[in-house]
Amino acid sequence: MNPKILVFAGSIRTGAYSGKTADAATKELALQGADVTRISLADYPLPIMDQDLEAEKGVPENAYKLARLIASHDGLLIASPEYNSSIPPLLKNTIDWVSRIHKDGGRPFKPYAGKVAALCSSSDGNFAGARGLYHLRSVLMNCGVEIITPQCSVPGAKDAFDEDGQFKDEQLRRRMETVVRTLIERAKMMSLRADK
């Protein structure tokens, strides 16, 4: 069975390089046979994580919607920009809210449990946003997500994509192919293990 992979970017800025990287990953996932869902975090706005707010109003419904989406997929592919060598606040806030969910409809619920993720980054600079992935990897692993080793970081992102949204550079294309292949293989293995 083809694994279900959820793809999103850590930025919702118009023309964001991370959005273009997520789109390139989505195409490659489909080419390699994954059942892929591409979403935008713009469709799931959340307030800044605040335990007083949570105590007063509970976890926001959009966090539950995202949690259910994550739980219904075998794996994740996240394409993130880098903010001051770390995770952009939109992405960190989203991960944090979903991590607050422990029950759904009165039943125990761990949306991150048993999930595997691939990480990509992009930047117009030479570091390609890769420094932020160190922190993103750490945060997701703390939530119980397994992170595959291969990653795809896109330098000079302003000029990295052709008019069809594909990478101009052959080495980048091969790197994304490796990331996607590894994610699909690992998601299949984890899904089989969960079914036993």
From TrEMBL:
Note the InterPro entries from the entry. Flavoprotein-like_sf (IPR029039), FMN_Rdtase-like_dom (IPR005025), NAD(P)H-dep_reductase (IPR050712)
Query: What cellular component terms from Gene Ontology apply here?
Result: cytosol
Domain NADPH-dependent FMN reductase-like residues, every copy: 3-156
What is an example of a GO molecular function annotated in this UniProt entry? FMN binding
Provide an example Pfam family for this protein: FMN_red
Name of the featured protein: NADPH-dependent FMN reductase
The species is Mesorhizobium alhagi CCNWXJ12-2
Q: What is the lineage of its organism?
A: Bacteria, Pseudomonadati, Pseudomonadota, Alphaproteobacteria, Hyphomicrobiales
